[in-house]
Amino acid sequence: MSNGHPLIPPIVSVVARSNTGKTTFIEALLPALKKTGLSVAVVKHHHHTSSFDMPGKDTHRIAEAGADLVLGISPVQVATFSREAGSSDLDAVIARHCSGYDLVLTEGYKRGDFPKIEVYRVERSDELLCDFDEMLALVTDTEWDTDVPQFSLSDAEGVAGLLVSWLDSPDRIPTPLDMQFNVWLENDGEVAASRWRMQLLSSVDEHGSITAGAEAMGVPYRVAWKKIHEMEERLGEQLLDTQTGGPEGGGARLTDAGRDRVERMRIFCDRADTALQEISSDVFGT
According to the model, what pLDDT value does residue 148 have? Predict the structure, then answer.
């Protein structure tokens, strides 16, 4: 029986080491899935800070001129380019853009919580990226001692059949689409602190460097450094104590001010979430 909530489409991440062939495998998997009648969305993880749109194209020029949303429409395709904060919350991005599809495949996001299909080639590594308990299937050119279903690199049809069975399984519980709230603080009209930026600071502190903290958050180093620099400028305080070189190597840790700022923002966000969820429940019944 339906609980009345819209549902996030089922999500499966296809992961692999670089140059293993995950894009090639997805290219083979999609026609096999389409034969079963499923509608499938694919989310590609773009690591670079550059736009997907191409410089010189009219759509890119219009976006650069300041349009918040640009639609490119042709007889065979509609392309949407919108200014967004990025991919820090994959659930929210999928909820906005992929609702109504039977299945969402993500290319990448190996550190995400979604069930994974790992594509493995012996020539690329002697180790798997994922633990077996994270895997829905293993596409491989060698055998592994595991109960995880294994398929050859050319068996896209077999993987498609597994996905159809998984989608129909009573053990797979759809995730209700929660009301999403974003909270941030501004200084003179510019974002000075936000939930995601505080998470970035915590990640840097936990992993001991901006590079490792940024990687754990799935963002490029340059983006992380820029956001941290912006926060320190707009809040008027040093948030990280960074060191370079030396006998113990470089690193980064939260200052006392940074630790205090992160904790206060966490408390603020928790209280805001609780209050807004109560309002949402009263108004929308969600």
Answer: 92
Nearest to 98 by CA among 187, 184, 6: 6
End-to-end CA distance of the chain: 16
> Residue 99 pLDDT > 70, yes or no?
yes
Q: Give pLDDT tens digits for 1-60.
A: 232 334 578 889 999 988 898 889 999 999 999 999 999 988 876 554 445 556 667 666
Residue 270 tokens, joined: 């928790």
Domain layout of the chain by residue ranges: 11-45+87-168, 53-84, 184-284
The CATH number of domain 11-45+87-168, selected from 3.40.50.300, 3.40.50.10090, 3.20.20.190, 3.40.50.150: 3.40.50.300
**45-70 pLDDT per residue, tens:** 655 444 555 666 766 666 666 666 66
For the domain covering 184-284, report its CATH number: 1.10.10.10
pTM of the model: 0.54
Three-state SS annotation for the chain: CCCCCCECCCEEEEECCCCCCHHHHHHHHHHHHHHCCCCEEEEECCCCCCCCCCCCCHHHHHHHCCCCEEEEECCCCEEEEECCCCCCCHHHHHHHHCCCCCEEEEECCCCCCCCEEEEECCCCCCCCCCCHHHEEEEEECCCCCCCCCEECCCCHHHHHHHHHHHHHCCCCCCCECCCCCCCEEEECCEEEEEHHHHHHHHHHHHHCCHHHHHHHHCCCHHHHHHHHHHHHHHHCCCCEEEECCCCCCCEEEECHHHHHHHHHHHHHHHHHHHHHHHHHHHHHCC
**d(C-alpha 276, C-alpha 268), whole Å:** 12
